[in-house]
Write a structure and sequence with these properties.
By secondary structure, this protein is α+β, with helices and mostly antiparallel strands. The protein has helices spanning about 10-15, 25-45, 45-55, 70-85, 150-155, 225-235, 250-260, 280-290, 320-330, and strands spanning about 90-95, 100, 115-120, 130-140, 165-170, 175-180, 185-190, 195-200, 210, 240-245, 260-265, 275, 295, 315, 315-320. Helix 1 (about 10-15) packs antiparallel against helix 2 and helix 2 runs antiparallel to helix 4.
């Protein structure tokens, strides 16, 4: 790749040519998500300051506006950007009890896609300046185009995703996505306000010596998870694994996607079926992970083959380097 900067918009446009029948609607949707990410990123940058000032004066800012929590802010930004995109007929969000259909407020009646998202995962880390992220998953609607969305549009297995990605707001702001033809990553160049290609065709190393889990739950993990963690900590006299756990799934996932490793959120005493959400956390990250050559399993099969029954259902998740997921599954 020449030294020339390739922006997200240029990349999406170029890749669209690879799909001769692509009508540009999915491309438009991805660009809209990129815009929403830039807006969220702008306001996150002030989070520590805003929280500090607001913490001292109560719940209104110096303009007298009601201050929304940043995850509510991110949620509203994503909803508005997707509602006005014209390509999305409805959304489901971790912040909303049920899905939102746009059919009554949309000028367009031919929107083909629905988007599920966690607007700001790991938001409890904001006030300590740790990385947080937006995770999104895109499906083609299954209900008739032009009418209201139905729950069936959203309760599709992960294998039906047409695109998925995340934005990580950390020391730099990055957007990684897949449309099923590999994973590409972009870093926000704040000086020009553009996401620029920085991680073309990402592939996760098959093996690595990093594992991520909340070790504090070790006592309540299943025997097979304990066996795997004991293996990581022993490594037969060689250098043991490193435990890396930020407590923000996007950040832990992102590190392992690029450098290799495994992220585990097994069943625990307080969350026997797992804590993380299937539809807008585990499925999109599983799509990315498989596209990057890794694996994503729940202990009984591929995450993406789970047939969903509820919008906010949780799942156990083991995701990362193929060799490490396979080692864990050996039990
Ligand atoms: P625990 C953040 O609250 C989150 O949803 C994920 O981002 C993160 O991986 C996980 O929960 C951390 O959970 O129980 O280890 O604090």
């Amino acid at each position: 790749m020449s030294g020339r900067i390739i922006t997200l918009d240029e990349f999406i446009f170029e890749k669209q040519k690879d799909f001769p029948y692509a009508s540009g609607e999915l491309s438009g949707l991805l660009r809209d998500i990129g815009v929403a990410a830039k807006i969220v990123n702008r306001d996150l940058g002030k989070a520590g300051l805003v929280d500090h000032i607001i913490g001292q004066t109560g719940t209104t800012n110096i303009q007298g506006e009601e201050v929304k929590k940043l995850d509510e802010f991110a949620n509203n930004i994503l909803i508005e950007c997707l509602k006005t995109s014209g390509e999305c007929c409805g959304v489901a969000s971790e912040e909303e009890d049920t899905f939102i259909s746009f059919h009554e407020s949309q000028r367009y009646s031919n929107a083909k896609y629905v988007v599920l998202f966690d607007p700001l995962d790991g938001s409890s880390n904001i006030d300590v300046g740790a990385p947080v992220g937006t995770i999104f998953s895109i499906y083609k609607r299954v209900s008739p185009i032009g009418g209201a969305c139905t729950i069936e549009d959203f309760l599709q297995p992960g294998t039906a995703q047409v695109a998925a990605g995340y934005v990580m707001y950390g020391s730099s702001t990055m957007l990684f996505y897949t449309t099923g033809a590999g994973v590409n990553g972009f870093t926000l160049d704040r000086s020009i306000g553009e996401f620029c290609l920085s991680h073309p065709d990402v592939k996760t190393p098959v093996m690595a010596k990093t594992y991520s889990c909340n070790q504090g739950n070790y006592a309540t993990f299943s025997p097979s998870v304990k066996t795997f963690i004991d293996y990581c900590q022993s490594s037969d006299g060689k250098k043991p694994f490193s435990l890396r756990y930020i407590g923000s799934m996007v950040a832990d996932f992102h590190r392992n996607l690029i450098k290799g490793g495994i992220f585990m959120y097994p069943g625990t005493a307080s969350a026997p079926k797992g804590k993380l959400r299937l539809m807008y956390e585990c499925n999109p990250l599983a799509f990315l992970q498989e596209q990057a050559g890794g694996k994503a399993d729940w202990g009984g099969g591929r995450i993406m083959e789970i047939v969903p029954t509820e919008l906010h259902q949780r799942t156990i998740v083991y995701i990362g380097s193929a060799g490490l997921v396979e080692k864990l599954m050996e039990g």
